[in-house]
Specification:
Largest interface: A-B, 35 and 26 residues
Distance between the termini of chain A: 82 Å
Oligomer: heterodimer
Helix content of chain A: 55-70%
Number of strands of chain B: 0
Order of helices and strands of chain A: HHHHHHEEEEHHHHEEHHEEEEHHHHHHHH
Number of helices of chain A: 20
Order of helices and strands of chain B: HHHH
Shape of chain B: elongated
Structural class of chain B: mainly alpha
Distance between the termini of chain B: 102 Å
């Protein structure tokens, strides 16, 4: 299909769903929240129809609460990313093209029926042909089960073709005043850049190794070991990890795995990623986590990672502690340190709204972190407060962690689960020698005033 | 006025009494903290202090157990910047090996095409 035809197809599919949303929302005569929910749902349906490039675009929207209203961000989580698999015969040449040998020589055996298929890649099961010492962990003996993730030939070209087709459309839409603030041309450029790194599976493999190293001392965390001699730009070979998805936690429990402990530990692991390591898995939806028979959480698919700057860690620890202790004033105060600036004239109003939101969402058990996040982002959106990208990603990731934990046990309160860890961490930050050196004179002054005042 | 022996003794007694009271206070706080339900720490400052005391006490027991077992205490391990730096370099070398293995496979592929 040429670019003009494709552009027309994209235009009509989006228009059809936009119209459907307009009718369903009675042409805007419903509340703003409901209106946004309806439009977000129809946009998701349109993206699912339009194929891989739009599914990826939707996934990008789902991690940008700094740019889009929360209703769109959370709706895009529901994108169904499954496509008809490409036959193995068409995938086979990729092995020779990128690894110099046919699949039969590279592996002891390979099953030509894929075990998974998504918009860009599909996954096969195989067996390791030789002993291999990985970057992290024990030697994998020959015969070890492997999972081979392969980028489908032509995926990149198709996505780039779609980007080229929609560019004139996006530039026209950007001229419309109500859509200007979404800065769609910038989002499209960012999308084009992100595709480059998603297509190169070596980046994901290296991130996986790094994650394994960061959590090498944690006996409850594992990753799929990467087999580098059988990996290239479009092929990522890793150890096949047996396990249960989170929605199968009943089976894990029946097999003797303490799934509840792992769900709580998962919240601590997230806090450690953010506040100690400074890198966090930002795409932690349910299919990217497994509970292993050995009683561990296995993290897979490191396609999207968030980063936390060293100088922001203390502020984030303080914000999380303020959230744990429902202290809106403190949360807003420390948010300024990571670039979330509330104008002085609006500060009291925002604190009041956030405080009321905390009361509403945190007074019940378990606390409703998702409800709080959507409400908090909506308040910032209404007040036109610029949300830094990293902050938005972090809030979104925290909600996903809650969703994952509650899939295992729906009464888990991740704020409560993270209470001990967050408190310890805040104390650690507060007792840092550099901070004490800065604060000690003030403390002494305060003490003298108290004694003689 | 010269310092009398009785004054020194009184000072030491007061010092001991302060410690005793603090110790008893701490123990009582730990006990209260242990019975505090999770999530109650946020309810008031007193509950926070009790909860914190219980957390610290758990940490103390862990260190004690490690010392009895003859292991290095956790803080020794954590604070060892050198050991961490060595691990970091070791990881980078292993990571480099991984990169080389992948590049070598790519080279094989290019060679096969020639």
């Amino acid at each position: 299909m040429n670019a003009r035809k494709r552009r027309r197809q994209i235009f009509w599919i989006i228009t059809k769903h936009w119209w459907r949303a307009a009718v369903e929302s009675r042409f805007g005569f419903v509340g703003i929240t409901v209106r946004r929910e309806v439009f977000a749902r129809e946009l998701r349906f349109a993206f699912e129809k339009l194929g891989p490039a739009f599914i990826k675009l939707g996934q990008l929207i789902s991690i940008r609460p700094d740019m889009f209203p929360p209703q769109y961000v959370f709706e895009m989580e529901n994108l169904r990313d499954s496509v008809t698999p490409t036959p193995f015969e068409e995938m086979k040449p990729v092995f020779e093209e990128e690894l110099g040998k046919p699949a039969e020589e590279l592996f002891e055996s390979i099953n030509p029926i894929p075990i998974g298929s998504a918009s860009i890649a599909q996954v096969y099961k195989a067996k390791l042909a030789f002993d291999y010492k990985p970057v992290i962990g024990e030697v994998l003996p020959a015969g070890t089960d492997l999972a081979i993730k392969m980028v489908r030939p032509g995926s990149e070209e198709k996505i780039r073709g779609d980007i080229a087709a929609v560019t004139p459309l996006v530039n026209t839409l950007h001229k419309l005043k109500p859509l200007k603030r979404f800065n769609m041309p910038q989002l499209l450029q960012e999308f084009a850049d992100s595709i480059t790194s998603e297509i190169d599976l070596r980046i994901e493999g290296r991130t996986s190794d790094r994650f394994a190293f960061d959590f090498i001392d944690d006996p409850y965390v594992t990753t799929a070991t990467i087999v580098w001699p059988q990996s290239s730009k479009s092929i990522l070979t890793m150890q096949f990890v047996e396990g249960w998805h989170l929605h199968e936690s009943d089976q894990a429990t029946a097999a003797g795995v303490d799934a509840r402990f792992l769900a709580i530990h998962g919240a601590d692991v997230f806090m450690k990623q953010v506040m100690v390591v400074g890198r966090f898995h930002a795409d932690m939806h349910q299919s990217n986590l497994l509970l292993t028979p050995g009683g561990k959480i296995c993290y897979i698919d490191f396609g999207i990672m968030g980063e936390v700057k060293e100088e922001h860690k203390e502020a984030i620890a303080q914000i999380l502690a303020a959230t744990v202790y429902a202290d809106a004033k403190r949360a807003i105060q420390y948010s300024a340190d990571i670039g979330l600036i509330v104008r002085d004239s609006e500060r009291e109003e925002v604190i009041g709204k956030v405080s009321a939101l905390m009361k509403r969402t945190f007074s019940k058990s378990p606390r409703d972190v998702r409800g709080f996040a959507i409400g908090f982002l909506s308040i910032l959106n209404e007040q036109r407060v610029v949300v830094p990208r990293g902050f938005g990603l972090l809030v979104k990731a925290l909600v996903v962690v809650e969703g994952c934990a509650q899939t295992v046990y729906d009464d888990i309160d991740i704020v409560e689960a993270a209470e001990t860890f967050t408190t310890e961490l805040v104390l650690k930050h507060m007792l840092r020698p550099a901070r004490l050196y800065k604060k000690l004179p003030l403390a002494i002054d305060a003490a003298i005033n108290e004694l003689i005042g | 006025m010269p310092l009398r022996n009785a004054d020194v003794m009184k000072f030491l007694a007061v010092w001991e009494m302060v410690h005793e009271m603090a110790d008893e206070g701490m123990k009582a706080s730990i006990e209260r903290g242990k019975t505090t339900e999770k999530g109650e720490m946020a309810s008031d400052p007193g509950a926070f202090v009790d909860g914190l005391a219980a957390i610290i006490d758990e940490k103390k027991d862990a260190i004690k157990a490690e010392l009895i077992e003859g292991k290095d205490a956790e803080f020794d391990k954590d604070d060892s910047a050198t050991a961490r730096a060595v691990d970091e370099v070791r990881f980078e070398v292993a990571e480099l090996r991984g990169k080389l293995e992948s590049m070598s496979a790519t080279l094989d592929a290019i060679q096969a095409k020639l």
